[in-house]
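Reviewers of the previous submission asked for a worked example of the structure-prediction workflow described in the proposal, so we include one complete record here. The input consisted solely of the amino acid sequence. No template or homolog information was supplied to the procedure at any stage.
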Amino acid sequence: MPEHENRTRRELDEAMRTLLARKPLDQLRVRELTELSGLRRQSFYYHFKDIYDLFAWSVRRERRLLLERQGECLTWEEAMMDLMARMEEERPFYTALLDSRGRAGLREALPLTDMLEQTQVYYRERCGVLPDPEGEPARIRCWEAILLSLLEGWVRGDLEVDPRAVLEVLRSAAEQHAAGAVWQTLRAGGGGEDMPG
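From that input alone, the workflow returned the following structure tokens.
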């Protein structure tokens, strides 16, 4: 049976997430998890060596869930709103992730690269811009760093804005980047001599 389908693991994960709303990850105890989930300690240790092992499994499970959810989204905007809705639902989990693993942990849990690649293809095709195999990976890494920073601030409460406002800023930046790419394509092709610049 695949690990993500194991009922005992899911119950322990749910108990951990419930407790994370009350206390930090480093203060959780196996006894609390097993009492809350109605399982025996032996069941916990059959599946996990400690709380951090459970948390690592939970991060992998979260990523799989987010990938499934994003697969159902029709646009990158919908995918981003869904991602932020999930992060809002599970804010204590994401706070624990940031506290224990920093931004690298957030990168591990969030499937941002796939979403950014699809967004880049969408705007490139929409604007008629040719692929840039050398520049696109660097742009994706930069956008990922920007998004991770933005999402970290949002989860921690440093960025107190509605997810729709965040999405509007991202949409505007993506459109401005796409317009700049069109401008560069026109200039490179000789079609932009008469344009102001």
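DSSP finds nine helices and no strands in the chain. We consider this example representative of the routine output the project will generate in years two and three.
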